[in-house]
Amino acid sequence: MHDFDFLPAKFHQRQKIRKSRFWLGSVFFMFAVVIVTSSLFQYAVEANIQEQVDCLTQSYEKTKVLKEQGHNLKKVLSTTRSDAGLYAYLRHPWPRTQILAAVVESLPDSVMLAQIQIHRESTISTPDIPVHQRRRVDQQKEDIGKLLPSQRDIKQLRKTYDAGDTIVSIEGVTTHVGSLHRYLRGLEEFRLIEKAELSSIESLENSDQPGASQFSARLMVRPGYGQPGTETTVDVAQVSLFNQ
Fold it and tell me: I want to staple 162 with a disulfide (CB 3.0 to 4.6 A). Which of 132, 158, 187, 224 is the partner?
């Protein structure tokens, strides 16, 4: 049995055109859906990235502020330490009253002091600077200019005071030479006196007191807090604070 198509050819042509238009529209619709979906996905990704960037920016700003605060705190700490070091060093010289008390406290009746003199004695000479070292000295001066004021002060103080010893020169009369020697040995037991030695002694012939002798002695004061040669910094500092 055969099927007969009585429809004209134009009708079939139009039907094919309608089908092709439908599929073409479907394809365009699918492309549109894909493009819209991609745009929405890209927008969501960009929004997420922007949110992360904003979060990182805030963290960066906070970190930058904290870093600046830490830098400022380091400056304050450095200045405070320098000031504390200068303040501590300024307390290192033994008070003259302590030195005088150490000299007079154990003075026996047979020893009479006529003069006490406290002075500094330099132990380091300052030779002439060779020509080839002048540039180095100039560089050191430039480095000193970069220091904090308190650091420059303590450097100058150390240059002045650490290069010498504090010496106590005493003169007097004794009627018993043995008591004088015991007195000088006893001075070395004080924390303030490092060394006590007799410089000279001679008999007084025209003295009203029998066996009287005129003497002079030299006492070396122990280095104070923060100076080179200190036995124990903490112990010496405690003694210094306790006796003040």
Answer: 158
